[in-house]
Protein backbone atom coordinates (compact mmCIF):
# COMPACT_ATOMS: atom_id res chain seq x y z
CA UNK A 1 0.00 0.00 0.00
CA UNK A 2 1.08 3.61 -0.59
CA UNK A 3 1.89 5.14 2.79
CA UNK A 4 3.31 8.47 3.99
CA UNK A 5 7.06 8.74 4.58
CA UNK A 6 6.53 9.52 8.25
CA UNK A 7 5.06 6.08 8.98
CA UNK A 8 8.03 4.30 7.44
CA UNK A 9 10.65 6.52 9.09
CA UNK A 10 9.00 6.33 12.52
CA UNK A 11 9.21 2.53 12.33
CA UNK A 12 12.82 2.78 11.15
CA UNK A 13 13.70 5.02 14.11
CA UNK A 14 11.99 2.73 16.60
CA UNK A 15 13.92 -0.21 15.22
CA UNK A 16 17.28 1.47 14.46
CA UNK A 17 17.47 1.02 10.71
CA UNK A 18 17.69 3.21 7.62
CA UNK A 19 15.64 3.12 4.43
CA UNK A 20 17.05 3.60 0.95
CA UNK A 21 15.15 6.02 -1.28
CA UNK A 22 15.73 5.11 -4.91
CA UNK A 23 15.03 7.44 -7.83
CA UNK A 24 12.93 6.29 -10.76
CA UNK A 25 12.11 7.47 -14.25
CA UNK A 26 10.45 4.43 -15.80
CA UNK A 27 8.71 1.09 -15.30
CA UNK A 28 11.80 -1.09 -15.09
CA UNK A 29 13.26 0.96 -12.24
CA UNK A 30 10.03 0.70 -10.26
CA UNK A 31 9.94 -3.04 -10.93
CA UNK A 32 13.55 -3.43 -9.77
CA UNK A 33 12.82 -1.71 -6.44
CA UNK A 34 9.60 -3.65 -5.85
CA UNK A 35 11.22 -7.00 -6.65
CA UNK A 36 14.06 -6.17 -4.25
CA UNK A 37 11.62 -5.07 -1.54
CA UNK A 38 9.56 -8.23 -1.99
CA UNK A 39 12.62 -10.47 -1.89
CA UNK A 40 14.06 -8.83 1.23
CA UNK A 41 10.73 -8.06 2.92
CA UNK A 42 11.56 -4.35 3.03
CA UNK A 43 9.51 -1.17 3.04
CA UNK A 44 10.22 0.86 -0.11
CA UNK A 45 10.74 4.55 -0.82
CA UNK A 46 10.41 5.37 -4.50
CA UNK A 47 11.19 8.93 -5.47
CA UNK A 48 10.85 11.05 -8.57
CA UNK A 49 12.67 14.30 -9.24
CA UNK A 50 11.07 17.10 -11.20
CA UNK A 51 13.05 15.88 -14.18
CA UNK A 52 11.73 12.36 -13.65
CA UNK A 53 8.15 13.59 -13.53
CA UNK A 54 8.66 15.52 -16.76
CA UNK A 55 10.34 12.53 -18.45
CA UNK A 56 7.84 9.87 -17.40
CA UNK A 57 4.78 12.16 -17.30
CA UNK A 58 2.73 12.33 -14.13
CA UNK A 59 -0.09 10.11 -15.37
CA UNK A 60 2.24 7.24 -16.30
CA UNK A 61 4.08 7.57 -13.02
CA UNK A 62 0.88 7.72 -10.99
CA UNK A 63 -0.46 4.55 -12.56
CA UNK A 64 2.87 2.71 -12.37
CA UNK A 65 3.00 3.45 -8.65
CA UNK A 66 -0.59 2.30 -8.30
CA UNK A 67 0.42 -0.93 -10.05
CA UNK A 68 3.32 -1.40 -7.63
CA UNK A 69 1.00 -1.02 -4.64
CA UNK A 70 -1.52 -3.39 -6.20
CA UNK A 71 1.02 -6.10 -7.06
CA UNK A 72 2.67 -5.96 -3.61
CA UNK A 73 -0.13 -5.19 -1.14
CA UNK A 74 2.01 -6.39 1.79
CA UNK A 75 4.79 -3.85 1.17
CA UNK A 76 4.57 -0.29 2.51
CA UNK A 77 5.58 1.98 -0.38
CA UNK A 78 6.27 5.70 -0.17
CA UNK A 79 5.92 7.77 -3.34
CA UNK A 80 8.15 10.77 -2.76
CA UNK A 81 8.81 14.01 -4.64
CA UNK A 82 12.57 14.45 -4.66
CA UNK A 83 13.87 18.04 -4.55
CA UNK A 84 10.65 19.98 -4.98
CA UNK A 85 11.70 23.55 -5.82
CA UNK A 86 8.48 25.36 -4.94
CA UNK A 87 5.15 25.12 -3.17
CA UNK A 88 3.50 24.60 -6.60
CA UNK A 89 5.71 21.59 -7.42
CA UNK A 90 4.89 19.99 -4.09
CA UNK A 91 1.17 20.65 -4.55
CA UNK A 92 1.09 19.12 -8.02
CA UNK A 93 2.93 16.07 -6.63
CA UNK A 94 0.25 15.71 -3.94
CA UNK A 95 -2.43 15.98 -6.64
CA UNK A 96 -0.70 13.07 -8.37
CA UNK A 97 -0.88 10.75 -5.35
CA UNK A 98 2.59 11.33 -3.96
CA UNK A 99 2.50 10.44 -0.26
CA UNK A 100 5.56 12.52 0.58
CA UNK A 101 7.20 15.65 -0.78
CA UNK A 102 10.55 17.29 -0.38
CA UNK A 103 10.50 21.05 -0.27
CA UNK A 104 14.11 21.90 -1.01
CA UNK A 105 14.21 25.49 0.14
CA UNK A 106 17.98 25.43 0.59
CA UNK A 107 18.09 26.99 -2.86
CA UNK A 108 15.75 29.54 -4.36
CA UNK A 109 13.18 28.51 -6.95
CA UNK A 110 15.77 28.77 -9.73
CA UNK A 111 17.52 25.83 -8.11
CA UNK A 112 20.83 27.71 -8.13
CA UNK A 113 20.95 30.53 -5.64
CA UNK A 114 21.54 29.57 -2.00
CA UNK A 115 18.44 30.75 -0.17
CA UNK A 116 18.17 32.65 3.09
CA UNK A 117 17.14 30.81 6.23
CA UNK A 118 13.98 32.96 6.29
CA UNK A 119 13.00 31.99 2.74
CA UNK A 120 13.61 28.34 3.47
CA UNK A 121 11.48 28.42 6.62
CA UNK A 122 8.68 30.31 4.87
CA UNK A 123 8.26 28.00 1.85
CA UNK A 124 8.83 24.80 3.84
CA UNK A 125 6.30 25.81 6.47
CA UNK A 126 3.77 26.54 3.74
CA UNK A 127 4.29 23.07 2.23
CA UNK A 128 4.00 21.43 5.65
CA UNK A 129 0.65 23.14 6.19
CA UNK A 130 -0.74 22.04 2.81
CA UNK A 131 0.75 18.54 2.91
CA UNK A 132 -0.15 17.61 6.47
CA UNK A 133 -3.77 18.63 5.84
CA UNK A 134 -3.79 15.86 3.22
CA UNK A 135 -1.87 13.24 5.21
CA UNK A 136 1.29 13.75 3.16
CA UNK A 137 4.75 13.89 4.75
CA UNK A 138 7.37 16.59 4.17
CA UNK A 139 11.15 16.49 3.93
CA UNK A 140 13.02 19.79 4.21
CA UNK A 141 16.65 20.61 3.54
CA UNK A 142 18.97 22.90 5.43
CA UNK A 143 22.47 23.57 4.14
CA UNK A 144 23.60 23.41 0.52
CA UNK A 145 24.69 20.08 -0.90
CA UNK A 146 28.17 20.26 -2.34
CA UNK A 147 31.76 19.25 -2.15
CA UNK A 148 33.93 20.06 0.84
CA UNK A 149 36.81 18.94 -1.40
CA UNK A 150 36.29 21.63 -4.05
CA UNK A 151 34.12 24.04 -2.07
CA UNK A 152 31.59 23.95 -4.89
CA UNK A 153 27.91 23.90 -4.12
CA UNK A 154 25.51 22.42 -6.59
CA UNK A 155 22.12 23.01 -8.13
CA UNK A 156 19.25 21.10 -6.61
CA UNK A 157 19.03 18.83 -9.65
CA UNK A 158 22.68 17.91 -9.28
CA UNK A 159 23.61 19.44 -12.61
CA UNK A 160 26.41 21.97 -12.45
CA UNK A 161 27.75 23.92 -9.55
CA UNK A 162 26.19 26.94 -7.87
CA UNK A 163 29.74 28.18 -7.40
CA UNK A 164 32.15 28.57 -4.55
CA UNK A 165 30.60 28.34 -1.13
CA UNK A 166 32.11 28.68 2.29
CA UNK A 167 32.79 25.60 4.39
CA UNK A 168 29.95 26.70 6.68
CA UNK A 169 27.37 26.89 3.90
CA UNK A 170 28.24 23.30 2.94
CA UNK A 171 27.64 21.99 6.46
CA UNK A 172 24.30 22.04 8.26
CA UNK A 173 24.61 23.82 11.59
CA UNK A 174 23.00 21.84 14.47
CA UNK A 175 21.57 24.91 16.17
CA UNK A 176 20.04 26.23 12.95
CA UNK A 177 18.70 22.74 12.24
CA UNK A 178 16.91 22.76 15.57
CA UNK A 179 15.38 26.18 14.82
CA UNK A 180 14.38 25.03 11.34
CA UNK A 181 12.63 21.86 12.49
CA UNK A 182 10.85 23.76 15.25
CA UNK A 183 9.71 26.53 12.90
CA UNK A 184 8.58 24.31 10.01
CA UNK A 185 7.33 21.04 11.52
CA UNK A 186 9.00 18.90 8.84
CA UNK A 187 8.86 15.12 9.15
CA UNK A 188 12.44 14.64 7.99
CA UNK A 189 15.45 16.86 7.47
CA UNK A 190 18.05 16.57 4.71
CA UNK A 191 21.44 17.75 5.89
CA UNK A 192 24.57 18.88 4.08
CA UNK A 193 27.74 17.04 5.11
CA UNK A 194 29.94 17.23 2.02
CA UNK A 195 28.15 14.84 -0.30
CA UNK A 196 27.09 15.87 -3.77
CA UNK A 197 24.86 14.31 -6.42
CA UNK A 198 26.17 12.17 -9.24
CA UNK A 199 29.17 9.90 -9.68
CA UNK A 200 31.96 12.40 -9.05
CA UNK A 201 31.78 13.01 -5.32
CA UNK A 202 35.33 12.46 -4.11
CA UNK A 203 38.70 12.11 -5.83
CA UNK A 204 39.85 9.53 -3.26
CA UNK A 205 38.22 7.37 -0.63
CA UNK A 206 36.62 10.03 1.61
CA UNK A 207 37.92 10.76 5.09
CA UNK A 208 36.28 12.85 7.83
CA UNK A 209 37.55 16.07 6.24
CA UNK A 210 35.44 15.74 3.11
CA UNK A 211 32.64 13.50 4.39
CA UNK A 212 31.57 15.06 7.67
CA UNK A 213 29.83 12.19 9.44
CA UNK A 214 30.69 13.92 12.72
CA UNK A 215 28.29 16.68 11.70
CA UNK A 216 25.49 14.10 11.54
CA UNK A 217 26.36 13.02 15.05
CA UNK A 218 26.29 16.64 16.27
CA UNK A 219 22.92 17.29 14.59
CA UNK A 220 21.49 14.07 16.01
CA UNK A 221 22.71 14.99 19.50
CA UNK A 222 20.83 18.30 19.22
CA UNK A 223 17.76 16.78 17.47
CA UNK A 224 17.48 13.18 18.68
CA UNK A 225 13.86 12.82 17.52
CA UNK A 226 14.26 14.16 13.98
CA UNK A 227 14.61 11.77 11.06
CA UNK A 228 17.73 12.77 9.11
CA UNK A 229 18.14 12.32 5.37
CA UNK A 230 21.39 11.82 3.50
CA UNK A 231 21.38 12.94 -0.13
CA UNK A 232 24.10 12.14 -2.64
CA UNK A 233 24.59 8.79 -0.95
CA UNK A 234 25.50 6.51 -3.81
CA UNK A 235 28.57 4.44 -3.05
CA UNK A 236 29.73 4.46 -6.70
CA UNK A 237 31.11 0.92 -6.38
CA UNK A 238 34.38 0.18 -8.12
CA UNK A 239 32.89 -2.93 -9.73
CA UNK A 240 30.17 -0.89 -11.44
CA UNK A 241 32.76 1.61 -12.73
CA UNK A 242 34.79 -1.34 -14.01
CA UNK A 243 31.84 -2.98 -15.80
CA UNK A 244 30.93 0.28 -17.54
CA UNK A 245 34.52 0.87 -18.63
CA UNK A 246 35.08 -2.76 -19.65
CA UNK A 247 32.18 -2.58 -22.07
CA UNK A 248 33.07 0.62 -23.86
CA UNK A 249 32.14 3.28 -21.31
CA UNK A 250 34.39 6.13 -20.27
CA UNK A 251 34.03 6.95 -16.60
CA UNK A 252 36.86 8.61 -14.76
CA UNK A 253 38.01 6.95 -11.52
CA UNK A 254 35.85 8.25 -8.68
CA UNK A 255 34.74 7.56 -5.10
CA UNK A 256 31.32 7.69 -3.50
CA UNK A 257 29.96 7.40 0.03
CA UNK A 258 31.12 4.10 1.57
CA UNK A 259 28.28 1.91 2.86
CA UNK A 260 30.09 1.70 6.27
CA UNK A 261 29.82 5.48 6.63
CA UNK A 262 26.09 5.34 5.92
CA UNK A 263 25.77 2.58 8.53
CA UNK A 264 27.51 4.89 10.97
CA UNK A 265 24.98 7.60 10.08
CA UNK A 266 22.10 5.20 10.71
CA UNK A 267 23.39 4.85 14.28
CA UNK A 268 22.96 8.66 14.53
CA UNK A 269 19.46 9.30 13.27
CA UNK A 270 19.86 8.87 9.49
CA UNK A 271 16.63 7.22 8.36
CA UNK A 272 16.39 7.99 4.63
CA UNK A 273 19.31 7.49 2.27
CA UNK A 274 19.00 8.78 -1.29
CA UNK A 275 20.50 6.57 -4.00
CA UNK A 276 20.19 7.25 -7.71
CA UNK A 277 23.64 7.11 -9.31
CA UNK A 278 24.40 3.50 -8.27
CA UNK A 279 21.17 2.34 -9.93
CA UNK A 280 21.95 4.32 -13.08
CA UNK A 281 25.39 2.77 -13.23
CA UNK A 282 24.09 -0.77 -12.72
CA UNK A 283 21.58 -0.30 -15.54
CA UNK A 284 24.10 1.24 -17.93
CA UNK A 285 26.75 -1.39 -17.24
CA UNK A 286 24.29 -4.23 -17.91
CA UNK A 287 23.04 -2.68 -21.15
CA UNK A 288 26.58 -1.98 -22.39
CA UNK A 289 27.54 -5.58 -21.71
CA UNK A 290 24.67 -7.05 -23.74
CA UNK A 291 25.09 -4.66 -26.64
CA UNK A 292 28.85 -5.18 -26.84
CA UNK A 293 28.77 -8.96 -26.40
CA UNK A 294 25.73 -9.56 -28.59
CA UNK A 295 25.68 -6.85 -31.27
CA UNK A 296 23.14 -8.82 -33.28
CA UNK A 297 20.43 -8.29 -30.64
CA UNK A 298 17.80 -5.61 -31.03
CA UNK A 299 14.87 -6.66 -28.83
CA UNK A 300 14.87 -4.12 -25.98
CA UNK A 301 13.95 -6.89 -23.56
CA UNK A 302 17.32 -8.52 -24.24
CA UNK A 303 19.05 -5.64 -22.48
CA UNK A 304 16.29 -4.20 -20.29
CA UNK A 305 15.85 -7.48 -18.41
CA UNK A 306 19.53 -7.68 -17.37
CA UNK A 307 19.43 -3.94 -16.66
CA UNK A 308 16.45 -4.37 -14.34
CA UNK A 309 18.14 -7.34 -12.69
CA UNK A 310 21.35 -5.34 -12.14
CA UNK A 311 19.44 -2.50 -10.50
CA UNK A 312 17.53 -4.97 -8.38
CA UNK A 313 20.84 -6.36 -7.09
CA UNK A 314 21.94 -2.86 -6.03
CA UNK A 315 18.60 -2.36 -4.28
CA UNK A 316 18.83 -5.71 -2.45
CA UNK A 317 22.38 -4.88 -1.33
CA UNK A 318 21.43 -1.44 0.03
CA UNK A 319 18.19 -2.65 1.66
CA UNK A 320 20.17 -5.35 3.42
CA UNK A 321 23.06 -3.08 4.45
CA UNK A 322 20.76 -0.33 5.77
CA UNK A 323 18.78 -2.82 7.89
CA UNK A 324 15.36 -2.28 6.32
CA UNK A 325 15.22 -5.92 5.18
CA UNK A 326 12.72 -7.93 7.21
CA UNK A 327 10.79 -4.80 8.21
CA UNK A 328 8.01 -4.61 5.61
O1 LIG B 1 18.62 15.00 -7.35
C1 LIG B 1 19.23 14.21 -8.04
C2 LIG B 1 18.64 12.91 -8.43
O2 LIG B 1 19.68 12.03 -8.70
C3 LIG B 1 17.69 13.06 -9.60
O3 LIG B 1 18.36 13.48 -10.73
O4 LIG B 1 17.21 15.56 -11.54
O5 LIG B 1 18.58 14.12 -13.09
O6 LIG B 1 16.35 13.32 -12.26
P1 LIG B 1 17.58 14.17 -11.97
P1 LIG C 1 23.31 10.07 -5.78
O1 LIG C 1 23.63 10.85 -7.02
O2 LIG C 1 24.50 9.93 -4.89
O3 LIG C 1 22.71 8.74 -6.09
O4 LIG C 1 22.24 10.91 -4.93
C1 LIG C 1 20.86 10.87 -5.23
C2 LIG C 1 20.07 11.90 -4.50
O5 LIG C 1 20.50 12.51 -3.53
C3 LIG C 1 18.72 12.17 -5.01
O6 LIG C 1 18.08 13.20 -4.32
NA1 LIG D 1 14.22 13.77 -1.39
ZN1 LIG E 1 19.27 14.75 -3.57
Automatic annotation (TrEMBL):
Keywords: Glycolysis, Lyase, Metal-binding, Zinc. It is an enzyme of class 4 (lyase). The active site is at residue 82. InterPro entries: Aldolase_TIM (IPR013785), Class_II_FBP_aldolase (IPR050246), FBA_II (IPR000771), Fruct_bisP_Calv (IPR006412). Zn(2+) 2 binds at residues 104, 141. Zn(2+) 1 binds at residues 83, 197, 231. GO terms for biological process: glycolytic process. Its cofactor is Zn(2+). Belongs to the class II fructose-bisphosphate aldolase family. This is Fructose-1,6-bisphosphate aldolase. It comes from Aureliella helgolandensis. The lineage of its organism: Bacteria, Pseudomonadati, Planctomycetota, Planctomycetia, Pirellulales.
